[in-house]
Amino acid sequence: MFIFRRPGAIQWWFLVILSLLLLLGIALATGIGYIPIATVEVVKIIVAKVTGNTNLLAGINQLFPYVVWEVRLPRILTSVMVGAGLSLAGVVFQGILLNPLADPYTLGISAGAAFGASIALLLNLAGLGLYTVPAFAFAGAVLTLAAVLLISSFDRQTFSSNLILAGIIVAAILSAGISFIKYLADEHVSIIIFWLMGSFASRQWTDVLLTFGFVIVGAGTCLFWGRDLNIISLGDRSAGSLGIDTRRVRIILLVTASLITAGCVSVSGIIGFVGLIVPHLMRFIVGPDNRKLLPAAALTGGMLLLGADTITRAVLPNDIPVGVLTALIGGPVFCYIFRRQRMLRAHGAA
Amino acid sequence: MGRHNLFEIKDALFFYGKLRVLAGLSLGIDSGSFYGIMGPNGCGKTTLLDLMARITYLSPGNSGHIKFRGININKYSRRKLAREIALVPQNFYINFPYTVDEVVFMGRHPHIPRFGSPSSEDREITDWAMRVMDIERFRDKFVTELSSGEKQRVVFARCLAQDTPVLLLDEGTSSMDIHYALKLLDLLRQGVSQGKKTIVAVLHDLNLAAAFCDRIVFMKAGRVVASGPTERVMTTENIKKVFNVDARIFHDPFSGSMQVAFRV
Hints:
The structure holds 2 protein chains of 2 kinds. By secondary structure, chain A is mainly alpha-helical. Chain A contains 14 helices and no strands. In chain A, α3 (64-97) runs antiparallel to α11. Chain B is α/β, with parallel strands linked by helices. Chain B has helices at residues 45-52, 78-82, 100-105, 120-132, 148-162, 178-193, 206-212, 230-233, 236-243, and strands at residues 7-16, 19-29, 34-38, 65-68, 71-72, 85-88, 166-170, 198-202, 215-220, 223-229, 246-252, 257-263. In chain B, the strands form 3 sheets. Chain B has a 6-stranded mixed beta sheet with strand order 6-7-8-3-9-10, with helices on both faces. In chain B, α4 (120-132) runs antiparallel to α5. Chain A binds chain B through residues 6-8, 95, 98-100, 155-156, 224, 227, 230-231, 233-238, 240-245, 283, 287-289, 348, and chain B through 17, 50, 53-56, 78-83, 85-87, 89, 91-99, 101-103, 106-107, 109-110, 114, 140, 144-145, 155, 158, 162, 168.
C-alpha cells in the first residue's frame, strides 16, 4: 500500500493526476443520466457557458445546455464540494484527536448541524430565504462545538480523549432531540427524514456557491496550519516544546473543520463515512504529512462522493439518498480497514 | 537578576486538581552544568520540567515565579522558547505512520519560518542527529514500527536537531539499553563540557546520575530537599531521607566515579 510513500519524495504529480481525474469525472458524470449526453458536448456546453461563446452550441440539442447547466452541474459540483469538505474536516479531526479512526461525526458536530436544520424544517422557517436551513445548521454546529469544548476542557492533560467522550455524549442527546422533532413534525416528517439521510437531489447554483465558500476558506485555513497539525501528532508536550501553541491551533482548526462540516451538512444532510475513510486511505498513499494529505483527501473525497452520487442518480432506481449508499458501502470497507490495521499492528508487535 | 543565570524558580506552587504537586519549590539552575533531578515517584519531577519548558503554567494565585535568563518565562514567545529549550518527554506515542526522518526533521520546526523552505543547515543538523543516535539506517522506516528503545532514540535525535542550549530530559534513557544510555549521556556530557549545553535530566538510576551529573537536586513531596555538587549532595543521609533505603557510597576506580550500593 505504501507504493507512493518511500523514499519520501513529494508526490505533487499525484495531486496533479487526482485533479485531472476529478475534472474528467465531472465531465463524464454530467453526460450520464436519463438523457445521455456525449462528453464532448458536455465540455462544449460548459466552455460556452463560462466564456459566453454561443457558437460552440451549434449542432447541440437545445435542451442539453439547460440539462447540463441548470440541472446536473449544480448537483454534481455540490457533491464534489461536500465530498472534499467532509474529507478535509475528517483529516483535521483525526489529526487533532490523534486518532486515525476518528471522524467528523465523533465530535457531534454534524448531529448539531442536523439538529439545527431539523428545527428550521420543523417550524417551516423561511426568515433568511434559501439560507435559513444552512444558517440553522451552522448555529447548531457551532453551539455543539462550544458545548463539546466546554465539557472537555476542564483538564488540559486529557483534552483529546475527553473531546471524543464529550462528542459522543452530546451527539446522543442531539439524536434524541432529532427523534423528538421527527415525532412532532406530522406533515413535514418526510422532508426531514429524507434530508437527514443525505441527498443531492435538486441542488442549485446557490448550494454550489455556499459549499464552495465554506470549503475553499476552510481548506486555506487548514493548509496554513498544516505543519503545526503535523507536529501536534507528536503529542502535546512535544508539540509545546517545539514552539506550538497547541491549545490555540486546536481551537482554530476545530472551529474551521466544524464550519466546513456545517456548510456541507446544511446542503446535503448527513453523509457518513466519507470523512472517515478518505483521509484514512490517503494516509496510506501520500503519508501523514498534512500539507500533502489535505489536498489529496479533498480531491479524492470529491471524486468519491461524485461517484456515489452518480450511481444513486443514474444507475439505481428512484434516486435513493446518497448517504444511505455511502454508509452501506463505506461501513463494511471501514470494518475491513480497521480489522486489517489492528491485525497488522498485532503481528508487528509480536 | 538573581544569582542563577539560567533558571530561577521561586516559591513555585502547582496543583493538579486538588492535589498539591509542587509545594513552594525554589531552585536555581546555572548554565553550563549537567543537573540530575532525583526523587521518589510522584514527587513533582515531571511537573517541574513541564514548568521549565512552559508546557504548563504555575497554578493561579501563585506568589512564586519562574525566570529564564532573568526574565519571567511567560514573557517569551513560544517559538523563541523552543529555540532555547528542548524537552525529551517520558512517553512517546504516535499514531500516524511518519518516517523516522520526518519526525527528527520536526525538531527544526522552530527554526523554519511558516512559509520558508528548510535550509541545507536544517537538513545537515537532522542528518547529524540521526547519525549520532545511530538511527540513520532506519530513517525511512515508520516510527510506528519501532521498538520503544528505538523510538526513544528517535525522540532524542529530534531534540538534538532542535539544537537548543538547554535540554530537559524526563527519563530520556529509560527504555534504552545500557549501550545507548551511556552513549547518549556521554554525548550530553561532552556538550556540557564544551560549554554548549545545559542539561536538566530526571534520572532514576543513582549510579548513572553519580557518573554524569555535576549537580544533583533531590526532591520529595514537591520540594527540593537537597541541591548542590554531586560529591557533596550524593550522601547516605540524603538517599535515606529521600528514598528511604540504606545505601553505601564509594568511589569506584573502574568507572572513575562515585557509585551507590543499596540494601533494603
